[in-house]
Structure formats: structure tokens, C-alpha cells
Design a protein that fits this description.
- The complex is a heterohexamer, with three copies of chain A (112 residues) and three copies of chain B (411 residues).
- In chain A, a hairpin with a 2-residue loop joins strand 3 (43-46) and strand 4.
- Helices cover 22% and strands 39% of the residues of chain A.
- Chain A has 112 residues and is of the alpha+beta class.
- Chain A has a four-stranded antiparallel β-sheet, covered by helices on one side. In chain A, strands 3-4 form a two-stranded antiparallel ribbon.
- Chain B is an all-alpha fold and 411 residues long.
- Helix content of chain B is 68%, strand content 1%.
- Chain B has a two-stranded antiparallel ribbon.
- The chains are: A alpha+beta (112), B mainly alpha (411).
- Chains in contact: A-B, A-E, A-F, B-C, B-D, C-D, C-E, D-F, E-F.
- The interface between B and D is large, with 50 and 49 residues.
- Strand 2 of chain E pairs antiparallel with strand 2 of chain F.
- Bound molecules: adenosine-5'-diphosphate (3 copies).
- One adenosine-5'-diphosphate sits between chains E (7, 35-39, 56, 58, 86-90) and A (27-29, 62-64, 101, 103, 112).
Chain lengths: 112, 411, 411, 411, 112, 112
């Protein structure tokens, strides 16, 4: 099992969710985050003062899948989230040692 | 406010006191005799009660929100608290000694300061009149001005003054700065006698607050993290609510300063609306030109700048004067907040000086330019009376110097 | 507003102009002669100054918050900005030409449009009266109506019109749609002459704004993501504040339209309160029946619907008529927003048409039904005058057609 | 309100009814004859129209925000909804039967309750007067009191009463508790006859709401999670806006209760301001001493406590009395909310009893102490009339017992 | 050392915190997240329009523990967070390579 | 590649960001979290009632770096975030199996 953690542009969330659902992924967890990277924030001006917004709003999608789905899911995210502009984000994949469904106590692949 | 109208008011207030034998006092006496004995007007009283409510609305919650929305999220409560606490403090100070110093009789010193005879509102009865309204209403109305003036100052040092220090400073400032200047202009003091026009407080309220704010933010120093950290306004919806309430409440401020429900009040309201809308649009379009886009903060800042600038002029100019003042205020305040402040490098967090100080001065000067005799009784430059501009300038200078020096000492 | 009362007002306004020799003008003249020369009433002036402040409060911050709370979070500032900017724009347009077109004298064309004689408020002095109040106050009061009407339209295309396009559209719309229709009904034009009853602007303000909104949202098209994305209101607390301020401010709107502090104003306020509360509860209970639960958005939408519907009727009906109008408005606006809109498939984001258009029409018609002679001088259907319903219908039709066509051309 | 002034009002209201042959009625008759026939005063009417708008502003959005900001985030809409819905419900109840029961003529039972003769506002015409204002305005003004009183109660059971249960309870409570008590004090009933002083509703509104709240929160029980979960206020900015609007609106409440724009109204406004500011600062400084720091919630709670306590006293005491009442209210309400509540262990979520009940009692008693004959016509303890304190105490006791028992039965 | 990441229903947070504290866990980090899964959101109606809320509010608890405590902690979370209704959430367990306490520089088990 | 996840005091965010940037780190993702630990929250008093704030505001910085930078980055965070008072936070380091840049599809070290 792997945890796929994708940092994407917020307005792409719905597209990614649909792409994953159509692959049969049944659940995911979403967090609002702020990202710092090559993409630079706009310069906001308030009266006299200029502020460069250092951190841009991003969305982190975390989805745990069985090993055989990792490839397909990564691909799907890649396609759905891509705008070809700087700041599209990253996908990180981490090994998950164990997964449990709280409601039933089921573990691992049947927990997802 | 209109001097000729104001003088008998001052007299009524001090009627029970011995009249000082100065020339000024004699002039007042003459004016008072010429006036018929006033009787209570329910209509005027109704409007002044309403105006009082409107002006209080400007500070709580108006100014509290206007400023609260512009600071960082963590400071919103502290900032709003300042306006609310000042509302309470000023009420007590005014009751105890402020009203007496501003509108009481100062005897031989009356040109400079009122006396202590009206401390704790001594001599006030249920039927005491001030012109055509109960004196209690006049006291309340003036109190709301004594509330908003110090509250405006807090914009200059938002985010950094200790609450306890602010409490002490504000109490002293009301007694030592606000009350004397109010007396000079409206209470029978030397600025009023000199013919300075200040209908609703451009000098007394806005220049005064602006200068005090400037001094305060220079003395106290910059906010920690100024220039490096992000200090953008956290919630401009709050500021927009605040600016709207300031606008609506300002009708009480300006039209209420006619002290009656009459044509002067109506004209004051109309020119207030025109100047404010014009200044708001001016700032917005200038911003749209200079930076690529119009912003909420821009349009509301412009509106407040326009409100400030029309304040001294409200009872003296007509709709065309209001248009001109609006354009001037929009440009000048934009310049004050966007160019002057960074150029000089002080940290006037919410532009108490950039908007109120600059706007107040522009308004005070232009009152001397656009005053129309048929409206407020005094002609301005455009009607061939250049002296009035000079008189206005003197009023500004005296206020700037006195307020600057005393505020500096207090800090 | 009460026609019989309004006519001399129109006259006073145009007193210095040559009276056009049309039948309508002659009728007006006769009415004016019958009336004693008006003198300023401080009481009436006090109430009208207050009413003006209240109606301004409806737009800023009232409507800005009502609409701002209903859009998505990212659009709240843009939405609130629209109301604020329109407030400023309408002020300038009204000062420059709007007031003249609506309430100036149109000469031979007076049945259809006022003239240019009052451009830049020419002829306005500090003592010019309009009936018992200063003309400056009348101008200001009417201006606040010219502000809120275009601001209401923005609800139809919230979330999608470009700001610069909106600025241009609104300026033209005030000149080409609002000013003429206001003239027809209140300024001495043909609808007023025909006996159409519109106390405080059911036709001029609400049907007008509703139709313009409907046209706008159809022409502009749906929001991107309409139907698939979540467009739920982001902060109904803001909307509730907005609705409350609309309610309170509407007292100025309706009771202020009596143009005096008298029994007509009192009755207008009372029926406003009754109809509003009834419509709010009606919507809430209908929703409670149809969907399982009452909602905040439902009760405040119903309240606004009731306010709209009672607007034309306020000076003409009694408490029982208000109850009936409230029930009808609650049901009709619920139907307009919840059934009609999805059925026809247009995207009236915040129901400018569903609430203001539908509510305005229901109110205009029912004014013809429930008018009581002892209250407003004109009997309605229930007092055996079915013609009044027909007259009201004509007023609606003319407004719908004119506003619809011109708004369409402008877009 | 001032009894001597109120009696003719009651009479005017019931003028078309047969006068009951009780001693009380005879006394009223005598008073009415002594008074000159009233004519409509535009000034008084202007102020009362304004006051009505101000008092409505207290409930929507004032109280809705004050309470809404103090609950947990998930309950803010439900809490604000309660105030809004009660505003609508009370309007209908008042129109249908409430006004009649409170201010109608009760015949032989008039000492205890009004009659049914004014149901559906029967007998109200456009020109019916109530003293110098239209009766429609008097009905509206009183209605706003009938709105805020039940809305205040919701603070005691915020977060836990079902909406449908609340609707039923409030309708019955207005009919069975509010209307009778209003009749006793203001409508010609036995408490008014006994000389109980209650200028603007310390007893009728605040003690009444406080006791009902206390009973309700004891009967309903504690919130789930009370004591273990974090129930801290989620947004004190909302509460601060709410408190500010309560303060401003209270000018309508207290100064409006003079039912005229005169010296009594002015003095009522002035003492309201002084007592409120004093109580706010008192709570703040007490908190600063006892806990280490002053808080926003503290200063606004103190302000509301001061507003409550000055309510019965507003037309009877002078500025010095207001100072004293402010200090007492600040301390007593702090004690009520911070010490009494945890000590007795009930869960009065937002301190409806701790602030309104306690503050109302302190104010009612101290009215008897500080009343000044020259201001309100009745001397208090400090002018050597200890009996007045005893009379006030009786008024409190009767209200507490009746309201407590009936509210308990209703729940 | 393991990172135990539990996604639970928000109102269960306090129960879970208490359960962990009583096991001797001294720290944890909590994030507000939105979850998508089998549990469907309510249908909200605003005037005419219906919206199905796709993402439900959840809370993510992250706690790093030594390997010997993993079993007990998982068990405790399972019991405290369970309501037996759909949407109770998941527990994911990941390997942690190293932990450091910033204040002291202590590493691994003494960093927790 | 490793994921370095640091939980720090919010007002230290800017210092840490600068420290990392000067090491050549080009991106990071920041989340607002609430922390429970040895540091106790203030007691807040609202009228009568006392509430101990159990969870304190913290900021979580997640940065994925190649193995050779782990040491340096940890060190930099340690120095920048340290105040020597309780509650300074933790650094957790997890193994990352794969990283992808969405815009380009680049993987692993060239994705960062
Ligand atoms: N090394 C990293 N570790 C964690 N998150 C990162 C890292 N680099 C980038 N990110 C996240 O990815 C987002 C996009 O990165 P950025 O460099 O702006 O654009 P791109 O991915 O197109 O090169 C950033 O805003 C940040 O949230
Ligand atoms: N594959 C997954 N990866 C990450 N988070 C998931 C995954 N599946 C479910 N979740 C999270 O767990 C929550 C509960 O899942 P859900 O399917 O609704 O109920 P249950 O766990 O009872 O089957 C979701 O809201 C989501 O936050
Ligand atoms: N075992 C843990 N797992 C995850 N996060 C933890 C753990 N222990 C502490 N934290 C996080 O680190 C923060 C600081 O921990 P704390 O014990 O208060 O201080 P210190 O790190 O100085 O000992 C906590 O607020 C919490 O967010």
C-alpha cells in the first residue's frame, strides 16, 4: 500500500476527484495548504505598501491505494491537475505499513 | 460650524456665568441680544437626537470595524477594543471636565480655554436650552465628537501600543488637546473670533486627530516586522461595513452640525454625499490608472477622505464646490497614503494622518476657496474674498503646532 | 407615493420653469393653487433627513452584505464592491443629469421625460423648498432611491460581470431607464397622471430592477460551473445582517415616502412591519412544509419579498391589507425563486428577479386590490373599485416592456 | 415611563371605549381632562419614527449578532435565526392580540389586563392620535419592545432549545406574560397606579426576560458537554458589533420612551450614555483587577449591563445618579455572570439572567434611590422619599413571581 | 518509530485525545481536513438550488510513537473514534526514519 | 528522497523559510495545524467560565529533499525554529518512494 500525496492548484480539485472516482478510488482526504515554490505570488498593494504573497493557496490530496493502483492513480492525477503552468504542484508517494478502517477494524486493502 | 450661529449658542451655555469684559465677549453679547429668545423646537430636537445616534454609530461599530478589518487577524479584537474603550473613557472625561473646558466660560482666559464652572455638568436641568434644543442634547452631540476624535488617532499606532498606555494617553489628550481646540473654534475662543470656518470639525476633529496620529506613530516607532512581514488587511468586508457606517453616520456629523433641521442641514447632507462619492471614485480611478486595478480598500479610503475634506466645508459650499473638494480630496489622500508615507518612511499603520490629516487640511483650505455667501454667510476666494483662505491657513497652523507639541509631550 | 400629494411637490420643484400648456400641467396647476403656500416644517425635515440616512444604510452596507454573504467566498469582495461603487456613481449621475431628467420640467415632453434645466442641480438654493422640506433634502432622498435600484440589479449577475462593464452599464441605465420611469410615476409623467399608485417605488424601483436583472442574467449567460460546482452561500451571517439592515432601512424608504412626519408615515411604517413579518413567516413555513426544515436563507428571503411587495402599497392599505399582501408575497417569491427559476433555467444568481421582480408585481397589483380610501385617498377592489387593478396592471406592463427593451439594448 | 405622562396616552388609546368605573380609571380621567387636547407634533412624530427604527435595530441585527458571536461556530446561524424569527412572530402576535391586551381597555379587569376590543388593531385610523403622535407610531414603538423582550430570553437557552418548541413557547409567552405585565406598568394597570417607576422597561422588559431566561435554562437543563467541552465564544467581533448596535439603538429605547422630542428625551439619552460608559469601564477594571487582563467580552458585557440598569431610571435621574447606577450595574452584573452563575450551577449560556435580570433589578431599585423630582416629577430616597424604594421593590417582586410561575408552566 | 495518522469524525477528537493521553502519549498534531468517501454529504438546498456537499469535515490526528506502542495506540484510537456508522474514518501507519525535538535536539524515542 | 515534516511555532515560519531558501531548497508546503504536547495552553476566561485551550496553533512545514540534503535541512530548521522554550516542536523524517512534478512529469530529484 502506498500513500499518494498530491499538492495541486485548488481549482483543479474537482477534476482530480472525478478522475480518481472513475478509477474506482473510494476515498480521499483533502487539506488546504499553502505552497512556496518556483511560482511567485502576486504583488498585492494596500494603499502605500506592497506585499508579495510568498505562500500561495494549494490543496493537498491524500489517498491511500494498493500497490497495483499506484501507477494508474498517479497518472490520473497528473493528467487531471496539469495546466502546464508553473505551480501545478507535486505528487509524493510514501510507503504505508498498515491501514485500518475504524468502523469495522478491517485492515489493509479491505480497509480502503 | 457657522460662527454667527454658534456664538449665541456659546452664550446660552454660559448664560449663568459673569460675562468677561473682553471685546470678543462684547461682540457675542450684541449678537445674543439681536437674537430672539429661543424656544424648544421639537423638530430640531428630533434631528439632533438622531444625529447624536448617527455620530455614535460612526465610532461603535463603524470605526471599530473600519480599522479592525485592516489589521492582521490576530489584532482585530485589540483594535476594535480601542474604539469601544475610548467611547467609554471619553464619555466620563467629557462629563467630568471636558464639556466644561470646551464650552464653559473661561472668564478672562475665555479666548484660550473654558472654565471649570460646568464640571460634572453642573447647572444642567431638564429644561436648560441651547438655542432651540435641550442643552442635554447639545452636550451629547458634542460628546460624540469628543469620542470619535481620539478613536481616529488609534489608526496610526494600531498593532503596537499597550492598552494601558493608550488609556492614560487618551484621557490626557482629550483634556489637554481636544477640549482647548474645540473651545478655540466653537466655544467662543480666538480661532472662532478670527473667522476661521469649520462647520463640523475639519480642524478640531480631523487635522487634530491626524497630527496626533502622526506624532504618535513617529514617537512609538514602527511595527515589529514592518516591511518584511505580511501586514495585509485581514478582512476587508469588515472595513467595508465600517466605511459604510462612517458614511451614513457622517450625515449626523455634518448635517447635525447645523444644530437644526433646516435648509442648512439639508445642504450640508447633500454636499457631503456629493464630495464623498466624488472622492471615492477619484481614488478608485487614480488607482486604476496608476496600478492596474481598482480595489475595495481604495474606494473606501477615498470615500473616507472625501468625508473628511467636506467636513469643514459642509455648511458653506454648494454642490459644485463639493465636486471640486471631492476631486481634490481623492487625489490628495491617495497621495498622502500611497506616496507621502513610504517616501517619509513613518509607519502610520492605518493612515490616520494620510487620510484624516491630509484630507482635513485640504478641506479646511478649500472651504476658504469655495465658500458661498448665500449658503453659509461667508464668501470665499471664488466670490472674491482671498483673505478667507489666509484665515483658514492660520487655523490649520495653530492647530498643527499646538496639537503636535502637546501630543509629543504626552507620549 | 400619494399622487395628490406628489403633484404640488413636482410643481414646487419646477416652479421657476415655464409651465407647459398640457392638460396634465393644468390639472397640476389647479392642485397647486388649492394648496396653501408651504413653509418649512422642522419636524418633517427631521424625519426626511433621517429617512435619507436610513435608505442609504440599505445599500451600504445593507445590500452589500445581503448579496455578499450569498456568493462564494472568493467573490464576496467583488460583490460588495459593486454596491459601494454604484452608490458613488449614482450620486454623480444624479447630480449631473439624473435629478433633472426625473424631476425637472420637460416642457412639451413632460409626460415622458423631465428636462435639462436642473442639470448640476441648477437653481437649488439653501432655502428652496419642496413642499415642507428643503429641496436639498428631497434631492438627497430621491438620490438614495436612484442608488439602491441599480444596486439591486447586481444580484442577478453576481459572480460574473466585469467591473468595468458594470460601471458603464449602470451609468447608462440610470440615465436611460431609471430617470424616465421615475419621471413617469412621480415626476409629473403619464403613469402618475393615469392614476397608477406607487407609494414608495414598487414599480419604479423593484419591478424595474427585477426586470433589468432578468434581462441581464439571460443575456450574460450562466455562471461558469453553474449546476455542477457548489455555489452555496458562503456566509449567511453576513446576509442576515444585510437583511436586517434592509428591513430597518426600509422604514425610511416607505415611511419616508410620505415626505412628512405624520399619520401617513406612521401607517406606512406599521403596514411595512406587518407585511414583512408575515411574508418572512410564510416563506419559512412553506419551506418547512415542502422541504423538511426552515432555513435562515428562507426567512430572510421572505422578509425581503414582503418588504418589496408592501412598497407600492404602504401609504394606501391598512393592517389587514398588509397581512394579505405579506402572505401573497411570501408564497409568490418562494415560487419565483424556488420553482420558476429552475423551471425556466436562467441563472439569476441571487434572485433579483425572483424576489424583486415577482414581489414588486404582486405588490403593485394587490395595491389596487386592498387600497382603502380613508387611508390613501384611493379606493381599491375591496372597496368596489376594480378599475384600480387594471390601472395598476397597465403601470406594470409599461414598466416591464420599457425596462426590458432598453436594458436589453444596453447590454 | 413617566406615569403622569403615560396615563393620558393610555386614555387616548382607549378613548373610544367605555371608561370603567374603577378608582384607577377615575384618576386617569381626571388627568386626561387636565391635559389640553393633543394635536399632532411633526417633531415628536419624527423622533418616534426614528426611535422605532432604532429599537428594531437592537434586535435585528443587534441582538442576533451579540448572541451569535458568543456561541460556538456551529450554532451561530441557529442563534441569529432565533432573534430574526421572534421579530416576525412577535409582530403578528402583537397585531392580532398583544397590543389589545396590553393597551386596550380591560373594563372591570383593567387593573390586571387589557381587553380584546383592539384585536387586529381595530379602531386604528390614519389620523388616530396617541398624545402628540399617530397611534400607528405608538403601536409600532411598543411592538419593538414586544420583539426584543422574548429575543433576550433566547440567550439563556442558546445552543439547545428546538426551534419548533421555541416558536410555540414564545408566542404563548408574549400573550400570557409580556402583554399583562406591560399592561400593569404602562397600560393603566395596578403597578402603574401604585406608582412604580419604570421609564423604558427595566421591569417589563429586562427583569421579565431575565427571569424567564433563568426559569428556562433551569427547566431545560445544561448544554450537552457543559463543563467539559470548550464552549468559548467563536467570534467576538460579531458580539462587539452587536453590543454597539444595542448601545446606539438603546437611545431609541430610552430617549424614545419620552414619547416626544423634548428635554426629557435629551436627558434620558445623556444619562443612558453616562451609565453605560461607566458600567462598561467598571466591569473592565474589576476584571483587570481580579483576573489579570481586560477583555472585549468584559467591556461589552458591562456596557449592556449599564444599558439595562439605566433603563427604568432614564427619565427620572440626573447625570450623577447615572454615574452611581453605572458603577453599581458594572459590579452587580459582573458578580451575576462570573460568580453567581457558577456558584448556583445553572447554565445560563449567554447570561440572560446574569445581565438582564440582575441589571434590571439593580436599576429598578436604584431608580427609587436616585430619582429627582425636578427631572421626572418623583423624588427618590436621596430627596428624602424612602417609600419609593419600597414601591420599586414591590414592582420587582410581583414581576418576578408572575413571570417565574407562568414561564415555568409554559415550559 | 511509526507515524500513526488517523482520520476521524471531528466530534470524536476529545475522546481520542483522552484515550491517547491515558496511554502515556505526550503529544500529537491535529489538522482540519475534508474527507471524501462512502459517507455521502447531506443535500443542502438554497432557494431553488440543491447542492450535495461532496467533502465532509474530518479531523486528522498525527502521532509519532515508538514501535512497541503502535498496537496499543491504534487500538485506543479504534475504540475511541468508533461510532459504527459509515464515515468513521481510517488509520494509516507509516514508518518514520528519524524524529528530532527542536528545543533540545534530542532524537528518536527521546524526542517524542 | 526524504519528506521532512517539521511542526514549529507559527511566528517562526518566516525565519525557517529563509533558512531553507538560503540552502537552495526551492519549494515547501505549509499547513496550519493544532498541537497538543507538553506546552500547555493559556487558561481563557469568558465571563464565569474557564477554558483551558488544549490545542495550540502550530505550523507544519513539509519539504521533500534528496537524501544528501536531509542533514543540512534538518540542521537549518533546528536553528531557525529554536526558541529554547517548551513547545518548539518536532521534526519527523519519512522515506519517500517517488516524487513527480505535475507540470512536466519529471520524477524524483529532478521533480523537486
Ligand atoms: N520540495 C518540496 N517539498 C514539498 N512541497 C513542495 C516542494 N516543492 C514544491 N512544493 C509544493 O509544490 C507547489 C508547486 O511548486 P512550484 O515550484 O511553484 O511549481 P512546479 O511544481 O510547477 O515547479 C508549491 O507551491 C509547494 O506547495
Ligand atoms: N483511500 C483513502 N485514502 C485516504 N483517505 C481516505 C481513503 N478512504 C477514505 N478516506 C478518509 O476516510 C474518511 C471516511 O471514509 P468513508 O469511506 O466515508 O467511511 P468508512 O471509513 O466508514 O468506510 C473519508 O472521509 C476520507 O477522509
Ligand atoms: N508524538 C508526537 N507526534 C506528533 N506530533 C507531536 C508529538 N509530540 C509533540 N508533537 C507536536 O509538537 C508540538 C510541540 O510539542 P511539546 O511537547 O509541546 O513541546 P516540545 O517539543 O518543546 O517538547 C506539539 O504541539 C505537537 O504539535
Amino acid at each position: 500500500m502506498k500513500l499518494i500525496s498530491a499538492i495541486i492548484k485548488p481549482f483543479k480539485l474537482d477534476d482530480v476527484r472525478q478522475a480518481l472516482t472513475s478509477l474506482g478510488v473510494q476515498g480521499m482526504t483533502v487539506t488546504e495548504v499553502k505552497g512556496f515554490g518556483r511560482q511567485k505570488g502576486q504583488t498585492e498593494i494596500y494603499r502605500g505598501a506592497e506585499y508579495t504573497v510568498q505562500f500561495l493557496p494549494k490543496v493537498k490530496i491524500e489517498v491511500v491505494v494498493t500497490d497495483d493502483m499506484v501507477e494508474g492513480v498517479s497518472e490520473a492525477i497528473l493528467n487531471a491537475a496539469r495546466t502546464d503552468k508553473i505551480g501545478d504542484g507535486k505528487i509524493f508517494i510514501l510507503e504505508v505499513a498498515k491501514a485500518i478502517r475504524i468502523r469495522t477494524g478491517d485492515t489493509d486493502s479491505s480497509a480502503l | 460650524m457657522n460662527l454667527l450661529k454658534r456664538i449665541p449658542t456659546g452664550l446660552a451655555v454660559t448664560a449663568i456665568a459673569v460675562l468677561a469684559a473682553t471685546g470678543a465677549a462684547l461682540a457675542q453679547e450684541a449678537a445674543a441680544v439681536a437674537e430672539e429668545t429661543p424656544a424648544l423646537s421639537a423638530g430640531d430636537t428630533a434631528w439632533m437626537l438622531t444625529s447624536t445616534a448617527l455620530v455614535l454609530l460612526m465610532t461603535i461599530p463603524g470605526l471599530a470595524l473600519f480599522y479592525g478589518g485592516m489589521v492582521r487577524k490576530k489584532n482585530v479584537l485589540a483594535t476594535a477594543m480601542q474604539s469601544f474603550a475610548i467611547c467609554c473613557l471619553a464619555t466620563l472625561v467629557w462629563t467630568i471636565v471636558g464639556y466644561s473646558l470646551a464650552f464653559g466660560d473661561g472668564g478672562n482666559l475665555n479666548a484660550y480655554i473654558g472654565g471649570f464652572d460646568r464640571m460634572f455638568l453642573a447647572g444642567l436641568g431638564a429644561d436648560t436650552l441651547s438655542k432651540t434644543i435641550p442643552e442635554s442634547v447639545f452636550i451629547m452631540f458634542q460628546l460624540t465628537f469628543a469620542i470619535i476624535t481620539p478613536a481616529l488617532i488609534t489608526g496610526a499606532f494600531a498593532d503596537r501600543m499597550k492598552f494601558s498606555a493608550m488609556v492614560v494617553f487618551m484621557v490626557l489628550w482629550i483634556v489637554l488637546v481636544y477640549a482647548p481646540i474645540a473651545h478655540w473654534v466653537w466655544g467662543g475662543g480666538f480661532l472662532g473670533d478670527a473667522g476661521v470656518l469649520d462647520f463640523a470639525g475639519g480642524t478640531v476633529v480631523h487635522i487634530n486627530a491626524g497630527i496626533a496620529g502622526l506624532v504618535a506613530c513617529i514617537v512609538i516607532g514602527k511595527r515589529r516586522g514592518f516591511g518584511s512581514e505580511n501586514m495585509e488587511p485581514h478582512n476587508l468586508v469588515l472595513s467595508l461595513i465600517g466605511a459604510s457606517l462612517l458614511w451614513v453616520g457622517w450625515f449626523g456629523f455634518n448635517a447635525g452640525s447645523a444644530l437644526a433641521a433646516d435648509g442648512a442641514a439639508g445642504m450640508a447632507m447633500l454636499v457631503t454625499q456629493i464630495a464623498t462619492a466624488t472622492a471615492a471614485l477619484t481614488w478608485m480611478f487614480v488607482e486604476w490608472l496608476v496600478r492596474k486595478k481598482p480595489t475595495v480598500l481604495g474606494i473606501i479610503s477615498g470615500a473616507v477622505g472625501g468625508l473628511v475634506a467636506i467636513t469643514p466645508a459642509a455648511g458653506f459650499v454648494g454642490p459644485m464646490g463639493a465636486l471640486a473638494i471631492g476631486v481634490a480630496a481623492g487625489i490628495a489622500c491617495f497621495w498622502g497614503a500611497v506616496w507621502l508615507k513610504p517616501a517619509l518612511g513613518y509607519d502610520d499603520s492605518l493612515d490616520a494622518f494620510g487620510v484624516h490629516g491630509v484630507g482635513g487640511m485640504v478641506g479646511a483650505l478649500l472651504t476658504g476657496v469655495f465658500a458661498i455667501e448665500a449658503i453659509g454667510g461667508t464668501p470665499g476666494l471664488i466670490e472674491g474674498n482671498p483673505m478667507q483662505v489666509w484665515i483658514q491657513l492660520k487655523g490649520i497652523l495653530v492647530t498643527v503646532v499646538y496639537c503636535g507639541v502637546v501630543s509629543f509631550i504626552l507620549l
